[in-house]
Amino acid sequence: MSDGIVYWLQQILNALQLGSIYALIALGYTMVYGILTMINFAHGDVFMIGAFFCFMAATMLGLPFAPTLLLTILGTALLGVVIERLAYKPLRNAPRVSAIITALGVGLFLENFTLALAPYPKHIPPLLENVTWDLGGVSLSSLQVIIICLSLGLMIVLDYVVHRTPVGMAMRAISWDKTFVPLMGIPVNLIISITFAIGAGLAGAAGTMYALAYPVIDPYMGIMVGWKAFISAVVGGIGNIRGAMIGAFILGGVEIMVTAFFPSTYRDFVAFSLLMLLIMIRPYGILGQPRTQKV
Amino acid sequence: MTALLRNHWDWLLEQRWLLPVLVAIGFILAFAIPEYNLLNKYVQLVLMYVGINIILAVSLNLVNGYMGEFSLAHAGFMAVGAYTAALLTMKVLPIAAYPGLFPLAVLAGGLAAALLGLLVAIPSFKVRGDYLAIITLAFLMIVKSVIENIDFIGGPRGIPGIKKLTTLPWVFFWVVVSIWMVRNFVYSKYGRGVLSIREDEIASDLMSVNTRRVKFLAFMTSSFFAGIAGGLFAHLLQFISPRVFDIIKTTDILIMVYLGGIASITGSILGATLYTVMLEVLRPSTVAGLLSWLPDMVFNPLNEYFIRHLGVWRMVIMPLLLVLVMLYWPRGIMGLREFRGFIPRRDREAHHVLKIPKSGEMP
């Protein structure tokens, strides 16, 4: 293969890895938005907590990869449900802004609480034996394969759950109409809790994979990644699950391509400028439906 | 007795001299405190931070509270103002010879920020709500990224060694100007436009409100004062870098605004003051000083297990407090209410009508 193609393939592989991590987090944003029309700004910090759960499971309990991942997902799912019950549920009928500010507060709390307990960045031990294959010049690591495959697997499962199961149908029903859905016998609170559990669990999975790919973690790592995942969700059309996945891969691709051709300090600049342009041209995202506003 | 007090209070609020006299007393104090060291240096410093935060909160409230948009770009405007003012005082203006040029630098910082505010106003014609929030966030990130990539202004390292030119009288001056201008704007014809955009943009468009002009003015005024606050902040902290003006700074200002309550100048003043003072009071040294009257038997264990660790834990306590305020007090301290003295006389009766949007739903 020529050098050019090898280079491109390598970059596409990197973009897939970054994009799949963004996608897992973006799904949580978009699901919560779809069901509650609320931006859960604490979600990026749930992702960070996921990375720390992974660290604790790996070092304190000394677990291998699979149980670590499982424990992390369970832990963050529980955290998501607790946050929703304690902080968001009482505000369901309050002005939307109070919920947003509460979410910002919860996020700050998670960051600073973690900082108080873990003041220094932590190193994640290598949980997986990392093998690198050379495919005609393109180097492919087993870690990359696991991250990409696992993320895609989780996304396919989620897509199936949302579009083909009774729980998913209830979720879509609640996001469609909140007044009459309870009259049909759908347990709204339970479904919202399940939504938060799934979203937070996916963020936990993303935290684990991120921690494996970039093994130094700190309490503020969730801010930037969280915002980028949020942007992915918006680019795809917030509230739309398939849109969030598409948006995440687009953002991952843009970021990797920018770092490939420009100095890496321009990454945020180009990524955010593109985002701004996209929103000005298509204010409802790629798959979002324009909502008509009535007077 | 209370009725009598209440009558006196009402009488006081009716007097035309009330606000000018308050401002004059404020100025005298602002000059006297540093001159005669009426308060120690640390309290003076906190006072100046309180003032800067009031400017930031009042100006952000114009867009987020009165107009009902959700802007996250305030720290970006602040950065523009801070960098403009700092570069002017360090590289352009002969400050060493003429320290009186400092207000010019701050003003230039405000104007530069206002110019960029125009840029953010343009997308707001087409995009609203969450999507506008993203645009303002993107704007903040772009400002930060641009600053990081210009080596001439220090890049990611920032600018150290800025002269300490911000003084209490100047902070007080800009606090008064910002409150005065925002108040006059809000109670002007355009201010009614701002409120009508919050309640229903399409309806206000139909009622021949020039929504574009109103948005231009609101964003420009808001970002102008953010730039002013940035200039003052840079010359108080004496060091700026892109990291100072990141999303956490915006979050701080948002917290002040919503803690104080939206669409209320008094609320923003209270919110900014409370938040700043709380953060300072929770410092270990302050708490230790405040509680030092306790007998040793109580104080020592308290100090050992609690106070000494406050440095980290106060950053945990603050967001927790914010969440509690939002849960039990979702409108903040003064949400949609106003200190009567700030309301123009002709509006004092009508204000009650404006005060409660029946739908209870705000954007």
Kindly provide the name of the CATH class of chain A.
Mainly Alpha
What is the string of helix and strand elements of chain B?
HHHHHHHHHHHHHHHH
Query: How many E strands of chain A?
Result: 4
What structural category do the secondary elements of chain A indicate? mainly alpha
Largest interface, with counts of residues having CB < 8 Å to the other chain, equals: A-B, 44 and 50 residues
Shape of chain B: globular
Mean pLDDT of chain A: 88
CATH topology of chain B: ABC transporter involved in vitamin B12 uptake, BtuC
Low-confidence stretches of chain B: 353-363
CATH topology of chain A: ABC transporter involved in vitamin B12 uptake, BtuC
- Proportion of beta-strand residues of chain B: under 5%
Catalogue the unreliable spans of chain A.
none
What is the helix content of chain A?
Answer: over 70%
Quaternary structure of the protein:
heterodimer
The count of helical stretches of chain B stands at 16
Q: Write the CATH architecture name of chain A.
A: Orthogonal Bundle
Count every helix of chain A, treating DSSP H or I runs of 4 or more residues as helices: 10
Largest sheet of chain A: 2 strands, antiparallel
Task: Give the amount of beta strand of chain A, in percent.
Answer: under 5%
Major sheet attributes of chain B = none
The helical percent of chain B reads 55-70%
Structural features, described:
The complex is a heterodimer of chains A (295) and B (363). Chain A is mostly helical and 295 residues long. Chain A has a single domain, classed as ABC transporter involved in vitamin B12 uptake, BtuC, CATH 1.10.3470. In chain A, 71% of the residues lie in helices and 4% in strands. Chain A is built from ten helices and four strands; from the N terminus they run ααααβββαααβααα. Chain A has a two-stranded antiparallel ribbon with strand order 1-4. In chain A, helix 2 packs antiparallel against helix 3. Chain A starts with a helix and ends in a 14-residue tail after the last helix. The mean pLDDT of chain A is 88. Chain B has a single domain, classed as Orthogonal Bundle (ABC transporter involved in vitamin B12 uptake, BtuC), CATH 1.10.3470. In chain B, helix 3 packs across helix 12 and helix 11 crosses helix 12. Classes of the chains: A mainly alpha (295), B mainly alpha (363). Chains A and B meet through helix 4, helix 8 and helix 10 of A and helix 6, helix 9, helix 11 and helix 15 of B.
